[in-house]
Amino acid sequence: MSLSAPTLLVQMNPTHQFKPVASKSRKTVRSSQCLEGRTSHSSKAVTVRTRTKPSRKQTRPQSSPVSLPCFRNTTILPPEFFQIDALDLAPRFLGKFLRRDDVVLQITEVEAYRPNDSACHGRFGVTARTAPVFGPGGHAYVYLCYGLHTMLNVVADKEGAGAAVLIHACAPVCGLETIQERRGQQTEKPILLTGPGKVVWNSWTGLNRIRY
C-alpha cells in the first residue's frame, strides 16, 4: 500500500531553532535549515545521525489544530526534491519538518537505504510488501517491524529504484501535549521521539494501523 503525502514535509524559516548537542555519523553532517552537505557514495548503508534539543531560553508555541504560528511561512517540498539518490537525500532531510494536524516535528536523525544494501527491503526486488518502496520518490513506505514498531520511510530516487530514507528520530515543535498524551510521558527531553517506532506510533494516529 502506497501513501501519497501522509504528512507534510516542509522547509521554512521557523520560530524555533534547535541546538545541535551531539552528532553520530560516519561523516559529520550538521542539522540546519539550508543543508547543502553531501555524503559519499558507497555500496554500504550510510547512517546520518544528529541529535538536537530546544534552547532553554525558547518557549514552545501553543498547539492549535487550525492555525500554527510557527508555520506561517512554509513550503511543501516538491516531488523533485525526493527523486535523487538516497545517500544524497538523507542529509537534506535534517532540519526539515513533518506536520500532521496540530503535531509538528523537526527531523533530527535519518538512515539511508539503497537497494544494494543488505538491510534494504528493496534488495530482493518487487514483492507484495515492498512494492511501495519501488514507487516514485516522495511517497511514504510504512511497515511493521518485529510486530511492534511502525516505521515511516520516505521513498527516494526515481520510480523503480527501490531506495528509501528512514525517519529515525525527531524533535517536537508543535503539539507537545498531544505527543505527551500518546506517549504517556510528560517529559520534553529528546527521548520522547528518539526512535522510528516512537515517531509514528505516538505522533500520528492512523499511520500505525497500516500493515503490509
Automatic annotation (TrEMBL):
Asked if the record carries the keyword Hydrolase, the reply is yes
| InterPro entries from the UniProt entry | Formyl_transferase-like_C_sf, MPG, MPG_sf
Q: Biological process GO terms, please?
A: base-excision repair
Q: Is DNA repair among the key words of this record?
A: yes
The EC number of this protein is 3.2.2.21
Q: Where is this region: Disordered?
A: 19-67
Family, according to the entry, reads as follows:
Belongs to the DNA glycosylase MPG family.
Q: What is the protein's name according to its record?
A: DNA-3-methyladenine glycosylase II
